[in-house]
Structures are given as C-alpha cells and as structure tokens.
Design a protein that fits this description.
Blueprint (H helix, E strand, L loop, with lengths): L1 H14 L4 H21 L9 H31 L1 H7 L4 H31 L4 H28 L4 H17 L12 H7 L3 H12 L10 H25 L8
Helix pairs in contact: 1-5, 2-3, 2-5, 3-5, 3-6, 3-7, 3-9, 5-6, 5-10, 6-9, 6-10, 9-10
Length: about 250
C-alpha cells in the first residue's frame, strides 16, 4: 500500500505546485452560483428553490469533469512516455490501476472541497448523516464515471485526439440529456427517454434526495443507488481487466 501512496503523490505533487487549475475551477463555480444561477432562477418557474437545484447540478458537473480528467490523464501518460516508466516499476497491473483510481479520488476530493462546502452552506438545515451520504454518493458517481472514462482511455491509447473527441461528445450527451440542470418530470418525453440512460441523472437525483429536495421532482432513490452501484462495479471491473490485457505494448508516440 505504501508503494501505491508514493505513486499517487509522485503524480499529484507536480499538479499541485501550484494548484492553479483547481483554484480556477473554484472561481468559475462561485461565479456560476453567485451570478448565473441567481439570474436563471428568476426565469424558471414551477420548481421550488431552483437556485439550490442548479447549484447541486454544478457540483455534479464538476464530479463528471474530474472523472473525465482521470481517463485523459492516463492517456497523456502513455503519449508523454511516463506509462512505460510506471510499467517498469515492481508493482502489479492491478496496483497500477488502483493508483490511478486513488489519484482520481484525491483530485476529486480537492476539487469538490470548496464547491460542496458552499453548496451545503447555501442549502443549510442538514444533518451529519445527510452530509456524509452526499459525499459518498458523489464519490460513488465519480468512480463509476472514472471507470467508464478509463475504459475508453485504453481504446484511445494510440490517439489522444480521438479520446478527446469521444469524451467531448459523450460529455455533451451525458450532461444535456440528464437531470443535472432540469427536473426529470419537466423534461419532454424524448429527452426524458434519453435521460434514463445518463448516469448523471441518477447521481444528481440521489444527491438531491439526500439533501432534502422535493422527491416528486426526482427519480426513485433505490433505482439511483442500484444504477450507480452497477455502473461503478462494471466499469471499474472492465478497466481492471483491460489494464491486464491492453496496456502491454502501448505506443507512447
């Protein structure tokens, strides 16, 4: 375990000196909540506290972006020549995969620290149980999406541009066709049908349920837990299988 922790820190220390990209995301979030969310909530009717609803959506989008970053970072390792070095270390492939997952989880925790704190303060009237459950739900969603992106990263090893194109297109579909920005009951039938297949729908509705939003706007939380569990187990399992089979012989240029 100590080797895994050292490897995680080996990658993180270069990204956190200084953590400009994290601070920038915090500033963007605060601007979105303080200006955009406050303005758009004046235009949306029929949803109580839409400002709070949208603020949670921004947190979900940050979670998705960080999960995507985990897969992209792995592809960059291959093309920058760092992956062959990692493969030469006396660790198993499963430990390498665990290192990537833990690094992604650490970055997610750092990235969410300010946005989630601000969100919880805005919503207020929360218990420790709901706060802890919210954090666990976000990380469960993050690991599920990260597993999906890592699986895609193995397919896109020979072209970082291909991976970027796939992730960009997938991001647009998964975010727009979900309940990140709008309640499920407000979506037109064709959009609602597509939203059922977005993992962000279940992640965002589960977090909102935990934080005390009106359940009539949300999907059944038991379905959400089942879908997120299936997503995390299946995608992380797929990534673990692929790292055993496809990493060998990856071209770094």
């Amino acid at each position: 375990m100590s080797n895994i922790i050292r490897l995680v820190w080996f990658d993180l220390k270069t990204e956190l000196r200084p953590p400009v990209w994290i601070i920038t995301e915090w500033i963007v979030f605060l601007v979105q909540v303080g200006i955009y969310s406050a303005m758009i909530s004046q235009l949306v009717t029929g949803v109580d506290d839409y400002n709070h609803f949208l603020t949670v959506g921004f947190v979900i989008m940050i979670t998705f972006d960080m999960a995507s970053h985990t897969g992209r970072h792995f592809v960059e390792h291959a093309h920058e020549g760092r992956l062959p070095y990692l493969l030469s270390l006396p660790i198993s492939r499963s430990e390498l995969f665990l290192t990537i997952a833990l690094q992604g989880g650490t970055e997610l925790a750092l990235m969410l620290s300010v946005p989630l704190t601000v969100t919880l303060l805005i919503i207020g009237n929360l218990t420790w149980i709901s706060v802890v459950a919210c954090v666990l739900a976000l990380f469960w969603l993050g690991f599920g999406v990260a597993g999906l992106m890592l699986a895609l990263s193995f397919i896109a090893f020979k072209s970082s541009d291909l991976y970027s194109a796939i992730v960009t297109g997938l991001s647009a579909v998964i975010i727009r066709f979900s309940t990140v920005l709008y309640p499920f009951t407000f979506l037109p039938a064709q959009y609602a049908s597509a939203a059922v297949f977005s993992p962000l729908t279940y992640g965002s509705d589960l977090v909102r349920f935990i934080l005390g939003f009106d359940p009539t706007y949300l999907l059944n939380p038991y379905y959400a837990v089942s879908v997120l569990t299936a997503l995390s187990v299946s995608t992380l399992g797929l990534g673990l299988v692929l790292v055993q089979r496809l990493v060998e012989g990856v071209k770094s240029a």
